[in-house]
User: Which sequence fits this backbone?
């Protein structure tokens, strides 16, 4: 099965597995991110705003180097497929890929700084399967084990409902104007661990 095929609603429960992402996963992660951005955000923002959002989204290689980024997989028709990716950060950068302006790659101090939930994406054919919840659990648990007392994230409008349901509270909204003139909203949210 390809990631574009989703099991029927009456099929057995989907079994998800996770592992740390590697550099070899980057092409598949980029493909999954592209599909997720293009499809999962459509009911929340305009096509121009989706293009604007891409300016602050993408692969962050420090997450792979720090071993804090996961891929979520399932087996379907005897084939392993990547259906989600995301992780947590122990650096000060709140969101974005390698190309995002304003990055701060200094390490956070667990005693005084929050950890970060970072770069969560679900394949559009595999939404509502628990992938986002699993990624949050993995990131929060790892951050807690690393001594962090709180965690923050930069949510998109499409991600905000999940984060609210999982106990994150809005701190502030930042609206940026992209190169195409469209608005890009990032919602800073936080939660105690």
Assistant:
């Amino acid at each position: 099965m390809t990631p574009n095929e989703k099991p029927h609603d009456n099929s057995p429960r989907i079994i998800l597995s996770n592992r740390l992402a590697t550099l070899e996963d980057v092409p598949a992660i980029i493909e999954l991110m592209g599909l997720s951005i293009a499809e999962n955000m459509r009911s929340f923002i305009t096509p121009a705003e989706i293009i604007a959002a891409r300016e602050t989204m993408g692969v962050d290689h420090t997450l792979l180097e720090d071993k804090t980024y996961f891929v979520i997989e399932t087996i379907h028709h005897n084939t392993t497929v990547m259906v989600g990716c995301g992780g947590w950060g122990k650096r000060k950068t709140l969101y974005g890929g390698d190309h995002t302006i304003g990055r701060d790659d200094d390490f956070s101090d667990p005693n005084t700084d929050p950890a970060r939930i970072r770069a969560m994406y679900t394949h559009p054919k595999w939404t509502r399967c628990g992938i986002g919840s699993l990624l949050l659990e993995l990131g929060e648990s790892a951050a807690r084990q690393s001594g962090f007392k709180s965690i923050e994230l930069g949510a998109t409008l499409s991600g905000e409902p999940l984060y609210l349901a999982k106990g994150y509270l809005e701190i502030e909204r930042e609206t940026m104007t992209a190169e195409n003139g469209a608005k890009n909203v990032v919602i800073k949210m936080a939660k105690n661990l």
Q: What stands out?
A: The beta strands are 16-20, 69-76, 79-89, 115-122, 150-155, 169-177, 183-192. Residues 26-40 form the longest helix (15 residues). The first strand starts at residue 16 and ends at 20. The chain has a mean pLDDT of 91.
